[in-house]
Amino acid sequence: MAKKQTAGRDNLGEFAPKFAELNDDVLYGEVWSREDKLSARDRSMITCAALMSQGLFPQLESHMKLAKQNGVTKDEMVEIITHLAFYAGWPKAWSAFGLAKKIYADD
Q: Carries keyword Electron transport (predicted)?
């Protein structure tokens, strides 16, 4: 079951309330919660792959943490990054490994 998301309201609620609402209620409340269609674990792997491919490392860091919470193991994250290195770029893989080492340090 997807955890209720409040990051939009917590970070942008007063500054950009509509964006915060769309983030929390639509993206996470409606899309991420459709676990009968695609598990949160699978959504996390897909999201991390997309963010790494685009070089969006601040967002990748938070989604990598979420991926770990959603059951993506260190070995799986290493394999995702290694695989993507050939499609998204070697420097992006190096950057993603830096995040993964930090996030999965206790594994």
A: no
* Closest to 93 (Cα-Cα) out of 34, 48, 59, 62: 48
Sign (positive or negative) of CA dihedral 55, 57, 60, 65: positive
What's the pLDDT at 38? Answer: 97
The pLDDT of residue 68 is 98
Assigned CATH class of 7-103: mainly alpha
Q: Where are the domains of the chain?
A: 7-103
Contact 57, 100 (CB under 8 A): no
55: region left, alpha or beta (phi > 0 left; psi from -120 to 50 alpha) = left
Other beta carbons within 10 Å of 62: 13
